[in-house]
Write a structure and sequence with these properties.
5-stranded antiparallel sheet; 135 residues; 3-stranded antiparallel sheet; 8 strands; 2 helices
Length: 135
């Protein structure tokens, strides 16, 4: 159902579009897939993990209500200086929930957006420390 097509490739950059049933997938479809479809999330994570870069930065253009139906694409930028062995414990056990505008997200990866989203509240184990996402 989901597949990719390479829009641009250089030694240090890959610009990739997603296809849904052989047609360009919209930002709306991709965001909905991230929110509601475990199979899509698994597929997308495997797509990123399968990158030929040892380490990369992932970027996508900002999306608004006016652009949410545009074709989705993202860029992987080679970032060899970020390549390192993963920490075995990571954030396991540190993050119990993230509330984004009233919706609870339990994946620790959501913590990376804490500094960028106004109104983001993080609850850590061991006490009610809160972080508001304003810089």
């Amino acid at each position: 159902m989901w597949s990719t097509h390479t829009l641009e490739a250089t030694p240090s950059l890959r610009r990739i579009g997603l296809l849904q049933r052989a047609s360009p997938a919209s930002y709306r479809a991709v965001i909905d897939g991230w929110r509601t479809d475990a199979g899509f999330r698994t597929w997308f994570n495997a797509l990123l993990a399968g990158s030929d870069f040892a380490a990369f930065r992932w970027e996508t253009p900002s999306v608004t209500e006016l652009s949410v139906d545009q074709p989705f694409h993202f860029v992987l930028l080679d970032a060899p200086s970020r390549a390192r062995a993963p920490e075995p414990s990571g954030l396991r056990g540190a993050l119990t929930s993230v509330l984004v505008r009233g919706t609870t997200v339990t994946e620790a990866r959501a913590a990376s957006v804490a500094g960028r989203l106004p109104g983001l509240e993080i609850r850590f184990q061991g006490g009610p420390r809160e972080s508001r996402g304003r810089r």
